[in-house]
Specification:
Distance between the termini: 57 Å
Strand order of the largest sheet: 2-1-5-4-3
Order of helices and strands: HHEEHEEEHHHHHEHEEHEEHHEEH
Number of helices: 13
Shape: rod-shaped
Radius of gyration: 50 Å
Number of strands: 12
Structural class: alpha+beta
Helix content: 40-55%
Largest sheet: 5 strands, antiparallel
Length: 460
């Protein structure tokens, strides 16, 4: 906007300068020409009285010398009554031009080498017409024109520069509020809920700033209400959880009882975490720095150990691959565990007993891919499933499971895709970007084997 305004002002000012400077320059040139020929006419008029009195050559030479223009002044007197013609000074005009002026009896100008000549007819005592020739060099015709054009050009440049400065100041006055509005919107989008915009600048931008600040206040209020609501809802779960914990004490010993008690304890821990997070004054908005995150392989082993017991009870075959060594990812341990629990819980919830499933981890140079696949009936409409994961609220699902997974992947610059697995059912691919850039889907190679992860997975 700022440069556009400057360009418009430059164009308009340049047009105005051209519209006024060019005609003014032409007028100055004509004035210089008129001045030169007026001087020539005065010189010719100074000789005319002497010609009306005498035609003596010596006397006329003294008159021409007194005029001080003997180098550019010439007098042509025709012959009459036995008197020979008299020519004083250097003749530059042609004899034809001189004769034409003598015959017509009026002044004339003609172009000659190096300038022009003024031919002025003068009546002499014998009744003949003498011609006074005054030479006007080109330098005298253009005297001062170049300087005048230079002054006009300087004034034009000064006007253009001044218009640019004024336009720039006006542009700054308009652009700075807009830039502050953009910066405020960016900060609010990054989670800086205290971002506000000064209500300054032109009326339209002031109104935009007022609307932005009002919107930011409403966002803060809505987030506070939602955090409080989440905390209240989570707090209500404590009562039934307490009952479950007391009931698990009466289950006795055994693997199933231990798993139930562990699940209830984990559920209580998650509920407490939700309450603390919901009531936290400042939401988490920063990306984990270097060294933060967790070992994906360790988390996968831990969660698969938990789900394997239930899989054994239902007769499901379980396969885990790619977790032999450490796999560092920029994701919190609790977030990855919640995402895996959501996907594995879907496998147990939406596939019949005995359905096999697998978890594969592929460690690449720029990304880590976690694949959760099963041998179930598959998902008829993956797009609808992802839509539920974006909180569409479609019937049959809350969408929270895939939403947790999607947020985890997108927080690193990755994504989530649903497709068909080599087991015959559904495959959910979690792409976790290691450098925070957009996901690179081609040429990604496993860090351990050097083979593309898609080809390696398809051969499993």
């Amino acid at each position: 906007m700022r440069w556009a305004l400057v360009k418009v002002c430059v164009a308009v000012t340049a047009m105005v300068v051209v519209a006024f400077a060019v005609p003014l320059g032409l007028v100055i040139r004509e004035m210089a020409r008129d001045r030169a020929f007026s001087n020539a006419e005065r010189e010719a008029a100074a000789v005319a009285p002497a010609l009306s009195i005498t035609t003596d050559r010596d006397q006329l030479e003294r008159v021409v010398a007194a005029a001080g223009s003997d180098a550019g002044l010439a007098v042509h007197i025709p012959a009459s009554g036995g008197t020979a013609a008299v020519d004083l000074g250097r003749q530059r005009a042609t004899a034809t031009d001189i004769e034409a002026v003598r015959r017509l009896g009026r002044a004339s100008t003609t172009e000659v080498s190096g300038g022009s000549t003024l031919l002025q007819p003068v009546a002499i005592g014998s009744g003949q017409i003498a011609v006074v020739e005054v030479y006007v060099p080109e330098s005298e015709v253009t005297n001062g024109v170049g300087l005048a054009w230079a002054v006009l050009a300087g004034v034009g440049v000064a006007l253009v520069v001044g218009s640019v400065a004024v336009a720039d100041r006006l542009g700054v006055r308009m652009v700075e509020p807009a830039q502050r509005l953009v910066e405020g919107a960016r900060e609010l989008g990054e989670g800086k809920l205290g971002a506000r915009v000064p209500e300054e600048g032109p009326a339209e931008l002031r109104l935009a700033a007022v609307a932005f600040n009002s919107m930011a206040d409403q966002v803060v209020q809505l987030l506070a209400n939602e955090r409080e609501l989440a905390a209240d809802l989570s707090h209500r779960l404590r009562t039934p959880l307490t009952v479950l914990r007391l009931n698990t004490a009466s289950l006795g010993d055994g693997p199933a009882a231990d798993q139930t008690r562990a699940a209830v304890a984990q559920l209580e821990h998650e509920v407490d975490t939700i309450i603390r997070t919901a009531r936290e004054a400042k939401p988490r908005t920063t990306v984990p720095g270097p060294g933060a995150g967790c070992d994906a392989a360790e988390v996968v082993r831990e969660r698969m150990a938990f789900w394997s017991a239930l899989a054994e009870d239902e007769g499901r075959k379980v396969r885990v691959a790619g977790v032999e060594g450490p796999v560092r990812i920029p994701v919190a341990r609790a977030d990855l565990a919640a995402a895996l629990d959501a996907l594995l819980g879907n496998v147990f919830r939406h596939t019949p007993e005995g359905t096999a499933f697998a978890v594969d981890v592929h460690n690449g140079d720029d990304a880590v891919i976690v694949l959760v696949s099963d041998a179930g009936p598959g998902i008829i409409d993956p797009e609808a499933a992802m839509a539920r994961g974006r909180g569409s609220g479609n019937a049959g699902s809350t969408g929270l499971g895939l939403d947790i997974v999607r947020r985890l992947a997108e927080s690193t610059g990755g994504d989530v895709r649903i497709g068909s697995s080599v087991l015959g059912g559904t495959e959910v691919r979690i792409w976790i970007q290691l450098d925070g850039r957009a996901p690179v889907r081609r040429g990604h190679r496993d860090r351990r084997t050097g083979t593309p992860w898609r080809r390696r997975h398809s051969g499993t």
